[in-house]
Amino acid sequence: MDNILITGADGQLGCELRSLMEGREEYRCLFTDKELLDITDKDAVEKFISENGITKIINCAAYNDVEKADSDSDAAIRLNVNGPMNLALSAAAHGIYLIHISTDFVFDGSKRTPYHESDRPAPLSEYGKTKLAGELAVKKSGCLSIIIRTSWLYSPFGKKNFVRTMIEKGIEEEIIDVVYDQIGTPTYARDLAEGILHILPQLDGTARYGEVFHYSDEGCCTRAEFADKIMKMRRLDCDINPVPSSAYPTAARRPEYSVLDKSLIKTAFGIKIPLWERSLSKALRLFK
Most exposed: 56, 250, 266, 280, by fewest CB within 10 Å? Predict the structure, then answer.
């Protein structure tokens, strides 16, 4: 039986993994939040892994506040860089696998075709820079590991995400301004969680060291198109007004285009990925 440490258990992906893993006898999962395990504390990480006989780690913990990361870079570095580094160093010491979750924000959005894993990262924001540094820390550790970049993650479990925000605004307002010049792929966190569970048993057969894979749902859209689809599927009487990003200046720059190419993860692990519209329809039934 695998003893799996899952960090960031109260986040969107962590909650979806918890839901999927309930009742599965092949895994003993230890779900931790920052109160149960501070991954920025190297000694605490090593003690937890040793005392619990951890055999695999899934790191879902992250500093995800894109805007605040620019003004609170120390906190973003601790969680997005030091945390993954501590997990990776312990994983290397114990010879166990680490699955680390990263982001499309490591790219600058200058391409107009889907990003491959081999494309050179060039993050625009402090958030993207710290997430890239976290990837590099995992690679440098030399631990058995894969890094999965994802995009525009949402889940009914999330306290704050684009889908929930749009639903709340759609109930209260008649018209919402949403940017039309940011293109990416909405990803239902449950789809990613299912993909991780599909990958887990395959890791034992191949030694991978810091290999990067992309996972998002299939297809792409603008933020405005995403919002419009939410309104229509939820049957909310709210119109979306497409506006340029310049109408909403933010502290953190976001990539204009961050669609990810998923060919590698599908080939390597035999993963089937659903269309984003279909997954959104399924997810919306669970939003309260």
Answer: 250
